[in-house]
């Protein structure tokens, strides 16, 4: 019996296969986690850029209507790979008598996504009588691989732009 046990102790064939089998789940989890985090950051960058682009495009108009906002939400959804439809709120904010006032605010897109309360904390200090356009997008995201703690959440991006060709953009 001792000879047989001693033979097995010295025989190292298959050890690397057993080590690989033990490490494979850890290596796969590391690989899938890395791919998921890369996808998260890539999508977050695309979401931020599309929000900025929409605000910039709207700032070049003299008036806005619902059909233009629907075109903008379609642009967002085609630019960013999302798990569902996005939602967008565009607001015109002006300064009168030293206070910020909401001129108009319109929402388009997925009604299942709840919006944050509209606040003026992102609005920079603007001159009396001047206005800005606040663009907010809400984009649902589903992780590439579930189980890493961030399976589903919503990107919420905001951008502020000054109208390019008029003092205030009107809503029709």
Topology:
Blueprint: H1 2-10, H2 15-59, E1 63-64, H3 66-79, E2 87-96, E3 99-109, E4 131-142, E5 152-161, E6 170-171
Would you kindly provide a written description of the structure presented here, covering whatever features stand out?
- Helix content is 40%, strand content 27%.
- The protein is an alpha+beta fold.
- Strands 3-2-4-5 form a 4-stranded antiparallel beta sheet. Strands 1-6 form a two-stranded parallel sheet.
- The termini are far apart.
- The mean pLDDT is 89.
Strand content: 25-35%
**Overall pLDDT, averaged?**
89
Percent helix range: 25-40%
Described by the principal axes of the CA atoms, the overall outline is: rod-shaped
List the quaternary state of the chains: single chain
The whole-angstrom Rg is: 26 Å
Any low-confidence stretches, pLDDT <50, length ≥5?
Answer: none
Pairing-aware structural class of the strands and helices?
Answer: alpha+beta
Strand order of the largest sheet: 3-2-4-5
Task: Tell me the major beta sheet.
Answer: 4 strands, antiparallel
Quick summary of this structure?
The chain is of the alpha+beta class and 172 residues long.
Distinctive features:
172 residues, 27% strand, alpha+beta, 4-stranded antiparallel sheet, 40% helix
